[in-house]
Amino acid sequence: MKNSEINTNLVDSYYVLLRNLSPDNKLELIARLSKSMKTTKKAKDNSWKSLFGALILDQSADDFVAELKRDRKFSRKSIDL
Predict the structure, then answer these.
(1) With 80 as the cut, is the pLDDT of residue 54 above it?
(2) Which of 21, 47, 57, 78 could form a disulfide with 25 if both were Cys (CB 3.0 to 4.6 A apart)?
(3) Cα–Cα distance for residue pair 7/56, rounded to 1 Å
């Protein structure tokens, strides 16, 4: 199927779904669709690069690691048999 055929089928499917709406609802839908076409959306930077990076700390890496180790809490209890 070509892209234009898929789009035509999609439009036909929407028409079947929406043809029973009241005239007021149809006009509201037309207004919203027209408004959505007039506004432009900014492209978001969804790249994976934005998920990675270095921590920005006020302390050295060694101090940070030492603080993490010092603040660890273990809740596991040993059971003597």
Answers:
(1) no
(2) 21
(3) 49
